[in-house]
Give the backbone structure.
Amino acid sequence: MRLTLRIGQLGLALMLVVPAMTAWLGSGDGAVAQPASGLSPQEKRGKQIFLKGEGGERAEIKATLNNGELEMPASAFPCANCHGLRGEGTKEGGLQPPPLVWAALTSPAKSALTGRERGPYTETSLKLAISLGLDPSGAKLHSGMPRYRMTLAQMSDLIAYLKKLGQEADADPGVGEDLIKVGAALPLTGPLQRIGEDVKLVVAAYFTEINSRGGIYGRKFELVTADSRGDQTGTLEATRRLVEQDGVFALVASFEPKGSHATREFLRSAEVPLIGPVTLSPGLPAVPNRYLFYLLPSFGDQARSLVDFIASGAPPLPPRRAERIAIIYADGEFDRDALASLRSQAKRCSLEIVSEQRDESDARSAAAIVESLAPKKPDYIFFFGSAENFVSLARELDRLKLEAGLLSSSVMVGRDAFSLPPSVAARTYLAYPASLPERDDFSEFTALIRSAGIKLRSAAFQALAYAAARILVEAVRASGRPLSRAALIGSLEQLQNFKTGVAPPVTFNPNRRVGATGSYIVGIDLAHRRYVELTDRLVPKE
């Protein structure tokens, strides 16, 4: 069955209902009125049929396979799967689907599949090919070509688009003969202004370097930024402006604050990819958003790695099984994500949660929390909240001599980890999702920073932005000269173990939208104010 379905993907797309046959055959072969540039609304609908097999709000399009024995949604067999995103023709399962650009369709040709000569297609004969599998002479097309069933209006939309397929008018926004316009929504005013400015400088410097080498396939990169102010409302406004007014091709290294659901949904509906959002933790819905490509694991995955770490008996604590854990958490989006994942992983590892308490953000709260924990005698305490409160908690643990291991994320705690009391620091374990200097070669990144005269004020965010820009450029290169958003996403989904020098090797696929999995577990060296690697990358067990 699998082989049959793959061959069946040779779809031209997409068939009309039989009762409408007379209507289409009388529709004529006249040219459809076109705008001077870009695609008309009709052609855009046809493009969705060609790329996705989707008919919008109209009737669902069906594909018939195996000479009518099997009917499937056309979304499983869109034209582009076999004929190419630009209608250039491809090789599929050892077969060679023909090109679908209008000049090729309307010229005589010899089928690479059947070996037969055929005359030029007209609109009428093309409709018969799509719906009944007949070439201009009335001969049957190759059996691998599905027959498609769609409405009259859908067929008209598709043919209107085929007339523009592969031409300049069919190019996605932001792609020109010698230019690729890329956007970034960044906080350029407000409390996070420094982060926004630092990220902008790094991405611009990397694009300048690529442009100095001639760009990619003769196209140079132009960075367009919009001020997001660092909050969720501003981020949505800035992203809309970049897509709808500035017409960017894709976004890279946009800053993603908490509560960015509306922005993520806008990118999904606009079908604009965002590579490497700069964020504390990826916003991952239950169903992956195919237009978002995160680089590092979420707080939830970091929490799961920490649970696996203590469940393995790795920490150098007194020789007893870690069965009792306590959890202290703030009530933020990222903290809730970590909490939910920790609960599920603790259950999988048979660890008992003896206490869950919300962090109330003051020193008195820390004292009350520790006092309430003492009688429960937890082996480990997980903390998900602010760095300031993490330090307050550690000081209370030291004051009350509660000798439990303390676990959190290095992203949450930051450099405040080096302010812990020595006795607590010695039994603190942090998930570290990025690359360690001892593990990766940061030389290209540091060389770019020096040559561009950029200060490392927001080093972690700047490194992440650099990685995102490198991944975008690599995906553009892999997409080839006929660049489109669909081709870019396809290239990203095939990226395997790509090394940026500042992040773990990145891999994406159609079901994976976080490039690096797992985290190092690190300890704290107070004397040298650095992290100490305790494990290889721990990928959470399922």
